[in-house]
Amino acid sequence: MNRRALIAAFAAMPFALRPAFASGDGTFEVTLTEAEWRARLSPQAYAVLREEDTERPFTSPLNDEKRAGVFACAGCDLPLFDSAAKYDSGTGWPSFFQPIDDAIRTKSDISIFGIRTEVHCRRCGGHLGHVFEDGPQPTGLRYCMNGVSLKFIAKT
Hints:
- The chain is α+β, with helices and mostly antiparallel strands.
- It is built from three helices and nine strands, in the order αααβββββββββ.
- The protein has a six-stranded antiparallel beta sheet. A three-stranded antiparallel beta sheet has the order 2-1-9, with no helix packed on it.
- The protein is globular, with a radius of gyration of 15 Å.
């Protein structure tokens, strides 16, 4: 893809999916050193949240979580998604049709897959997954999240 095609693709991107955040901007409420993140997270969670890796599909127990509650950031505990917004997308990753207000930020992810929209925790900048425009109503969006980047907190 040449630069002109890349710019045209970005311009055609729906406004809701355009990047609004850069993970490297360093303006986060929770900022830890690499050593502190490694001490806090499992190796797999560190790879996903801090290095933007992806877990294998159908490996997260959160994919099958059906209880009422909230899915929070595994890095900083910020509530990100209400369980009422979760649905089975068939992709093998926990999927949601909308986040909790002001919980996430997005940025463009330009790779061999084309232009995608990355989803990050707004409080710590941790990489959560990607958002796509093939989700259910009422939003039409599919927030496809790495289960290892989330933790579930059941309603009591």
